[in-house]
Amino acid sequence: MQTEYFARDRLPEAGRKIATGALIAFPTETVYGLGANALSNESVQKIFQAKGRPSDNPLIVHIAKQDELKALAASVSPVAQRLIDAFWPGPLTLVFPKTEQVPDLVTAGLSSVAVRMPAHPWALELLEYAGVPVAAPSANRSGSPSATTWQAVREDLDGRVDGIVCGPPTEIGLESTVVDTTGPRPRILRPGKITYEELVQVCPEIEPYLPKVSHTQDVDDNENEMESNKSGRPALTEDKVLLNSPGLRHRHYQPKAKVRLVSEPLAKADSQSSFIGLQLPNPSAGYLEIQIVGNAEEYGRDLFDFFRRSDRLGVLHIDCQIVPEVGVGVALMDRLKRASE
Ligand code: TXA
Ligand code: MG
Fold first, then answer.
1. Same domain? 268 vs 122
2. pLDDT value at residue 244
3. Same domain, 225 and 159
4. Mean pLDDT across 312-338
5. Is residue 230 over pLDDT 80?
6. What's 276's domain CATH number?
7. Is residue 102 in contact with ligand 1, taking CB distance under 6 Å?
């Protein structure tokens, strides 16, 4: 497949292509997404093929306007509406009970659907021209770090998708916060840029993120579970699905290099700084490359790009300094822990 590259002035064309069944990667404020018409089973199928994504991992549906939610969500609770009013457009994904219109492939057979309105002018423009809700996972091959630049998307998906929108590097660099609003109390399923501290201001009853379910299973384990599902045996209990964002069970966010979490700064600097360092096989030789970031926000923005750069250099070890698990540090530590597994 020949992949077409789109500059900003061709966003209308890229959007219309999504409407007619194409698979197009585009920038959002969090990471690049790989978009397809969410209401077309055939189009959504292409996402799973291009990414090599297990089909038990549901997708987030992206919309540009709130009235598009009616076709997707069977109901919007008052709490969910408060979260929408406070955080949309923005890096918050909300899980609702789904309508019949949403293909089962989008939700991996769940009775709920995840929806987000991104806060990125390019994404919003693309969605408006598409005129349909757009299912879009992160635009990377399954298992590798999310793409934060169009060049990273090209590295993973050139020749596998119809188009890539060549936008700016993403500002946040970590995926959206996912909140389930289908239960009695809303619950954080995946930590992200919108923090527990921010959410609790709007929604005092929200349950914080609890990484209760083991996420050490790899994709193969999950495929086995799907097999036993097909044979009629209950494979995933409802509890297991609901306790965590299903995608978080999979191998995720990992560079090829081995990632080690360290508590000490990697080089001399003021105590405010965090570091990501590429370590040579012989530790006494020091670091091949070191990236100094001023705070957890910058750390999150640069992490996946740093992982990809390290893979291009072929390094074997990466040391990442840990950060306190408050604010966006919760999301950052979540990704760091998964990367180091
Ligand atoms: O920032 C983001 O969210 C990016 C950009 C492109 O919007 N997208 C993204 O998609 O990170 P993806 O596919 O890599 O992650 C989607 C997450 C997974 O953890 C998945 O399990 C969860 O959302 N999810 C999707 N539908 C769900 C549902 N119905 N119930 C619970 N979790 C769901
Ligand atoms: Mg992803």
1. no
2. 54
3. yes
4. 91
5. no
6. 3.40.50.11030
7. no
Encoded tokens for 139: 């635009």
Q: What was the pLDDT predicted at 329?
A: 94
Model pLDDT, residue 211: 83
Neighbours of ion ligand 2 (CB under 5 A): 138
214 alpha carbon to ligand 1 midpoint, in Å?
Answer: 18
pLDDT grade for 131, boundaries at 50, 70 and 90: very high
Say if residue 240 is in the same domain as residue 295. no
b/e 158-173 (16+ beta carbons within 10 angstroms → b): eebbbbbbbbebbbbb
Residue 220's nearest CA partner among 47, 54, 51, 50 is: 54
Number of domains in the chain: 2
pLDDT grade for 245, boundaries at 50, 70 and 90: low
Q: For residue 307, what are the domain limits?
A: 258-340
Which residue, of 251, 267, 287, is where some domain finishes? 251
Domain-terminating residue out of 217, 251, 285: 251
Alpha carbon of 316 to ligand 1 centroid (Å):
29
Paired tokens of 322: 């840990």
